[in-house]
Amino acid sequence: MFWISSGLLFVSFGNFLVQGFMNYLIKNAGDYALQVYWIHEFLNFLFLITFIIGIMSQYVNVSNNGFETL
After folding, report:
1. C-beta of residue 51 within 8 angstroms of C-beta of residue 3
2. How many CB atoms are located within 10 Å of the residue 35 CB?
3. How many Å apart are CA 46 and CA 38, to the nearest integer?
4. Is the keyword Transmembrane helix in the record (predicted)?
5. Pair 18, 25: CB distance under 8 Å
6. For each of the chain's 70 residues, which pLDDT tens digit applies?
7. Is 6 exposed, middle or buried (0-12, 13-18, 19+ CB in 10 A)?
8. Which H/E stretch holds residue 62?
9. Residue 23 exposed, middle or buried by CB count within 10 Å (0-12, 13-18, 19+)
């Protein structure tokens, strides 16, 4: 549950910033708009990675002897 919540936090915060500033940046600073877009894409990637970790952690048990499936 921690990983899924963390993923939602990252993507929500990133989407809030991008949606809030993108219209302004496109009109006034196109180069910065492209940089902000790529930051947004990175946050979406981070979101998907945290979801994958969260789902995998439900099925994999980490012990001292290595990984064991549940």
Report:
1. yes
2. 11
3. 12
4. yes
5. no
6. 677 777 778 778 878 878 888 888 888 887 888 888 888 888 788 888 878 887 887 777 655 555 555 5
7. middle
8. strand 60-63
9. exposed
